[in-house]
Amino acid sequence: MSKEPHDPTHDEPHDPPHDEHHDPLHERLKAYEGRPAAVGGTGKDPVNEAMIRHWCEAMGDTSPAYRGPDPVAPPTMLQAWTMGGLSGHTDRSGAYDELSALLDAAGYTSVVATDCEQEYLRPLRPGDAITFDAVIESVSPRKSTKLGTGHFVTTRMDIRAGGELAGTHRFRILKYTPAARPEQREKTAPQAPQAADRPRRPRPVVNRDNAGFWDGVAEHRLLVQRCADCATLRFPWLPGCNACGSRRWDTVEASGEGTVYSYVVMHHPAFPAFDPPYAVGLVELAEGVRMISNIVGVPYDKVRIGMPVRLEFLKVDEELELPVFRAGGED
Fold first, then answer.
1. Whole-angstrom distance, CA of residue 252 vs CA of residue 239
2. Are strands 249-253 and 321-327 parallel, antiparallel or unpaired?
3. CA 109 to CA 176: how far, in whole Å?
4. Which domains does the chain have, with CATH numbers?
5. How does pLDDT run across 129-188, given as a tens digit for each residue?
């Protein structure tokens, strides 16, 4: 099972003050539960070594399981084999579009992906022909989050290889009406600004797999995992070695020296806690692993590939400190 939370709402959703048991809209939305979102879908290409290679190069995954005379596809590619590309699929059901239109008409016109779950039942190998069916699994009652108020919609896709169930993919979105921005709230209810109302940077997701990394950050140490069996370094933190599969590991402390391997400049979407444009870099550490963080110390348009950088820790607020990289020789 692979569960990859990605919740930009930051707070656990909660119910707004209304009686959801007598919500006519939700009753209409629940009628879509169990209806198909795609029927008899067919992957545009069979599982193939070229796409496996591209995926592994993009992810930096060098596992021998994905190469050689009898490779398998990385499990996390499960959804990739079902994607329709720019031209889309023609076998999509109208139920999902109807549900989306109903939410749009009710004012829930914004959408954000919140999380996905995958379950793997058998490995996929080059030559496997992919088919799939998708169903609208659930529509939540109206919920309020940091982003706004709306409904969570979950779809489940059953993915088959040669007719045999290979895995399932659950995908959840929030269709919502955006919450009023701070400046809009001030217009309707003028009051002195409070420190608690200032926008905060999103909180990192800390779990049992990466808690040690954040413990190191709290001590101003950048810790990199090292396999206890083959000594391969890995970042970000993972529960097992992607070189030999071992679950035993220890850590080494990075020197903090690195270079910009690649970067992007963020212009939008605007988020209250950030001030675009700003540079986000993929930094190659002296130890050989790469990590993503902000590049500071130079204007965003002066960041260059190959630029030397050095680790420092940025105190974002009273609760949050983050590792960032300052361009060498620039202040």
1. 16
2. unpaired
3. 6
4. 2-7+22-179 (3.10.129.10), 208-252 (no CATH), 254-331 (2.40.50.840)
5. 999 999 999 999 999 988 889 999 999 999 999 999 999 999 999 999 988 755 544 444
